[in-house]
Amino acid sequence: MNPDQIRIVLVEPSHPGNIGAVARAMKTMGLGKLVLVAPEKFPDEQATWRAVWANDVLEAAEVVDSLDAAIADCGFVVGTCARDQRLPWPVLDPRRAAVEMATNSKRGEVAILFGREDNGLSNEELMRCNLHLAIPTSDAYSSLNLAMAVQIVCYELHMLQTGDELPQDPNEGWDEPLATQENIERFYVHLEETLSQIGFLNPAAPRKLMPRLRRLYNRLGMDEMELNILRGILTETQKRSEPVDWDRQREGKA
Amino acid sequence: MNPDQIRIVLVEPSHPGNIGAVARAMKTMGLGKLVLVAPEKFPDEQATWRAVWANDVLEAAEVVDSLDAAIADCGFVVGTCARDQRLPWPVLDPRRAAVEMATNSKRGEVAILFGREDNGLSNEELMRCNLHLAIPTSDAYSSLNLAMAVQIVCYELHMLQTGDELPQDPNEGWDEPLATQENIERFYVHLEETLSQIGFLNPAAPRKLMPRLRRLYNRLGMDEMELNILRGILTETQKRSEPVDWDRQREGKA
């Protein structure tokens, strides 16, 4: 993928706030080329305000009169549209479209077209595209805000580059080594002993208490430090509590 | 996944416009439960304006005083944060976190916490979470707008449910059957004949013209109607053009 060869094209955006929000959405995802086709108001302080720290993207934005001018030098053009579009045309969701766009960006300029806030791209504009992109939405409300749609598409492009930077396993990169089975077994012995001592576990009628606790602690995937903390608690508990005499208690009850 | 058991929790949002944009982002992705912890201004006409057709989500939003009240009945709590968070804690990107949230939503209430516009969730709030969620961003600008972050997370949840509704192959659901190889070969014969007739292809020195045209048309995956159109063009071309006499031309050149 070559992000420098991917441009976002807004066709006749009417709210300058959206243009600013688009600039921010792009920059947070590592894209910088914005082309505006006949924007209603631009530049505008609403755009500047919504762009926050992406004003460089706004300032570098190219303003053109026609879609032709926006995509003349492009090798691959993608048009965003609603799913119930009338044209039968190749269409993909943002995830799969991102792969196509990334691939094509290595071979030429790629344009991603977003239509007007109120009624999107025209059929004539959609027919200029190599591929259509539809964002899956709820049946109850299918109209995303313009900048939100841009954010999702840019996010998918960025995920292609950095999706694997974050751990796939939530515990990857954990700062302590996992507790060994040997130490975990010692912990269970210590736990059982302590629970018996404080009168919570009756050795003569243990029920399923230890299996339940094993299932709980085993799911945790404890690290050595956590295990040491738990053992420290058990040790302190044992020191502070008078051992329950289960034999006497049984006699008393009988 | 049970979307009715997933709530979006905004902790101390300061801009009512963002609350409205969040409501719209949620509804377009099929979510409806919004909880606001001590919002600065709510209800507010900015929120109403930005929600557009998601005012039902705003009207049903629950306003509470504390994070405790927002998540008391939840079984699984996810906190969004920047990647350079100080806490070592289980963390996933939105795609992988969505799987965890969807799974847990079948077993209990799930809360997804989004922090303040200016400085996110506090460490204390993050420590209330089972899982952290970080959206991969550009190093140059890592701060997404609040509603944009909500949009991405809700989009990933929605993609889990409907990601496969759109064709995986961009040409799936095409309205015409693919042209058969038999018909495509007839087309190539017709094409070669026509190109020869109009003087574009010299049968004695064809170079790589036909292989190049084959590569081009084969990539298209033409349907029968398209093939018929092309053959119609060839037929008309043949009718209208005087055949080039390649033998005579060769003599003339020699």
UniProtKB/TrEMBL annotation, chains A, B:
> Cross-referenced SUPFAM superfamilies, in alphabetical order?
alpha/beta knot
Listed under catalytic activity are:
cytidine(32) in tRNA + S-adenosyl-L-methionine = 2'-O-methylcytidine(32) in tRNA + S-adenosyl-L-homocysteine + H(+); uridine(32) in tRNA + S-adenosyl-L-methionine = 2'-O-methyluridine(32) in tRNA + S-adenosyl-L-homocysteine + H(+)
* UniProt-recorded name of the protein: tRNA (cytidine/uridine-2'-O-)-methyltransferase TrmJ
- Which stretch is the leader sequence? none
Q: Into which EC class is this enzyme placed? A: transferase
GO function term, MF aspect, one: methyltransferase activity
Asked if the Swiss-Prot or TrEMBL record annotates the protein with the keyword Cytoplasm, the reply is: yes
Cite the record's note on assembly. Homodimer.
Q: Which residues cross the membrane?
A: none
Give the EC number: 2.1.1.200
Q: Which PANTHER family match?
A: TRNA (CYTIDINE_URIDINE-2'-O-)-METHYLTRANSFERASE TRMJ, TRNA/RRNA METHYLTRANSFERASE
Q: What is the role of the protein in this entry?
A: Catalyzes the formation of 2'O-methylated cytidine (Cm32) or 2'O-methylated uridine (Um32) at position 32 in tRNA.
The record's InterPro entries line, in alphabetical order, gives: Alpha/beta_knot_MTases, RNA_MeTrfase_TrmJ/LasT, SpoU_MeTrfase, tRNA_m1G_MTases_N
Give GO terms for biological process. methylation
Which residue numbers delimit the tRNA/rRNA methyltransferase SpoU type domain? 6-155
Q: Which family does it belong to?
A: Belongs to the class IV-like SAM-binding methyltransferase superfamily. RNA methyltransferase TrmH family.
Q: Which UniProt keywords apply?
A: Cytoplasm, Methyltransferase, S-adenosyl-L-methionine, Transferase, tRNA processing
Indicate where this protein resides in the cell.
Cytoplasm
